[in-house]
Hints:
Keywords: Membrane, Transmembrane, Transmembrane helix. InterPro entries: UCP026631 (IPR014529), YdbS-like_PH (IPR005182). This is YdbS-like PH domain-containing protein. The chain crosses the membrane at residues 17-40, 46-71, 184-201, 221-247, 365-384, 390-411, 457-475. By secondary structure, the chain is α+β, with helices and mostly antiparallel strands. The protein folds into four domains: 16-154, no CATH class; 178-250, no CATH class; 254-311 and 323-353 and 414-497, no CATH class; 356-412. The protein is 45% helix and 25% strand. The chain has a seven-stranded antiparallel sheet. It has a six-stranded antiparallel sheet with strand order 13-12-11-16-15-14, with helices on both faces. Helix 5 crosses helix 7. It is flat and about 85 Å long. The protein starts with 15 loop residues before the first helix and ends in a 12-residue tail after the last helix.
Amino acid sequence: MTSGEFEGWSTLDKRTLAVTALTMAGVAFGAAIPTMAALVGGGMRFWGALAWVVAGGLVLVGGGVLLDLLYWQAMRYRVTPERLETAFTLVVRSRKSLQRERIRNVDLTANPLHRLFGVAVVTIGTGSHESGGQGRLKLNPVSRAEADRLRAELLRRDELTETDENAPLATLDPRWIRYAPMSFLTPTLGLAAGGGLMQISEWAGLRKGLIDWVIALFRGIPLVVAILILLAIAMVAGVVGALGLWVEMWWNYRLDRESGGTLRVRRGLFTTRSISIEERRLRGIDLVEPLGNRISGAARVDAIATGMRQSDDKDKTDYHTLLPAAPVATANRIAADVLREPVSPTEAVRLTAHPRAARGRLLRWWAGSVVALLAIFAILGFLLTDVLLVIGAALGVVLLPVSVLLALDAYRNLGHGITGRYLVGRHGTVRRSTFALERDGVIGWTVKQSVFQRRKGLLTVVATTAAGAGAYSVYDAGQEQGLLFAEESVPELLTPFLERA
């Protein structure tokens, strides 16, 4: 490294060392409990085990801080009129840069420790999906003031007109929390809580005692009743967990349209998040209604935009969600406001139903899935134990009627239409999706037809776009119906490949 090579470059915030020290201390404390239990259970004296655990914790914290110190010394960044550049110089030298005109999002994240020390993580992306994360840079961390400055500077577009819309498009309504437990996440969290309790009891050497206590507690109660009680307890734990997760993710939620043509979502209780979407990159919205939310009359709004972080990112946060589960009327109103339309395209058009052949196809798929599951229980029951046969029979009594109802609901949800600048499609039952996609944003069509679809005169047409998930499908439409829809949505794009009867 030559003298003055990094003159004018900025460093990350040195408070990252304190954040790392406390983080590693928390990791060490969490690992200390099972480690102590294992050492004492293996015959080591308590004070000897404690000495080893403390020494290991100090090494873990010290090593983490040392590595972070080396990273802090090696990392530099700067913003020029044309580029954002980072440089890493330690054993190896690495330089990365993003053209400012290609930057599509600047997201800010701050967990509780970051907020305690007044710093934030800045993630800058172009929206490309190049291998190795070449389309994204992360500054971890910088001061909160520097994070806000970078966001404002990197998203500034001289060609965009200034707006005077200061009122938020949406703010948090605490009543929306009632939709949080109406999710498949609730039973999952309940079962996870039970598994976590068993794991902790094993670390503490109390697992056998816990199991014996539960057996004694339910002694004299029929097995089926005991199982139902345990499931009810798990569901209560799941509801509490779902409510807590919702509060953490969506507290202080606010959706703004900022001057310069940027939509900004801010949310989070302990870990705060700020997510920006350029309006000129917006190609539509997706009205998502999971089954539980749909039963309770709720839906969420997701953005369909170019340059968005996708679900294959390591960070699974919903970066494309503009509105959490809220009443459907509210969701449609926010969708209309976001798209600058008087009425949301998802409710402005009466969707065209699909042929009855699609209903039979869905019935066969759902019922066939249940039959395949029951066949597995039957085979294992004959090979292992009759208990599995009883369980399989009970599942069959419940799941077969449910599968028929879900298939019929999935058929009713199939539909497509065109309204103004948008093409609209709907499908799904466990997760119903109604997307409104700008017709100008469609860059191609893919027509899919399986052997079974061909026999019934059905096909699936897929609109290809550079935005959102990249492809939006209209499932099991009639052959002529689906092709005419694609042709009318984007004239001349599919016409050269059609043969007129």
